[in-house]
# Entry
Amino acid sequence: MIVAEQKPLAEIKALIGDAQKVLVAGCGTCVTVCFAGGAREAAIVAASLRMASKLDGNAKAVTDATVQRQCEWEYLDEIAEQVRDADLVVSLGCGVGVQAMTEHFPQKWIVPGLNTKFLGLPTEQGVWAERCAACGDCILGLTGGICPIARCSKNLLNGPCGGSEDGHCEINADVPCAWQLIYDRLSSMGKLDRLLEIQPPKNWRTARDGGPRKIVRPDLRLASEEE
Amino acid sequence: MKHVQTLLKQIGLKPERVQMFNLSSAMANRFVEAATAMTNVIQELGPNPLKISDE
# Structure
């Protein structure tokens, strides 16, 4: 899932500025399950902004609405009326949600209420950890299902660096060494021989280094759009 | 409870306005203590500023 964290209320207030009618828009997908921007969080942020603005002596009309997915324009139509009535929208979606709203409602000022952090999973109650860096050329098949791009601090492809100590990364003793994890995993599966194959330098053009990315699936395109 | 207190602080309200006391229905003395303690805290803090701004 996309993992995000709520911005401090003071920062959201600054982003809202002078707007009087504010809509806080939640998203029912990734940010709901990481407890950052779902219906519950949207209601709490809206109530907090109502109370804070009242205390500041300028009570704003803050409402909230949540869609199933902010990152698909079709779902945004459900809140079109609330968006139209607002001076400004605080999106509690990830960075994709904020931009989907900006593209779908070009006349409206949309501001982010979250900081989008990474692609990850919950490892225990209240803890999320990064697992995928969306590099665009998955090598998990070579590394036993453990990603050295997302989980090794140096993105190394051929084993650990000298900073790997007792299974931990030198940047922080709380961070496991990805290559130790890979070694242990391949060892337990009897596949250590896979490490003998030297990986050439990675082609980073499939990652962010190649600029903004896009996928076009001709099999899914509509004939009318192909023209 | 800590999270709610943090929220109140961010909003601009004193976090002490909300507190939680764990006690069973058989702990009458403890209930009185908690109610008295909370009453003292609230009296010291004064009325809820959100209500004052309504007037």
Observations:
- The radius of gyration of chain A is 22 Å.
- Chain A is about 30% helix and 20% strand.
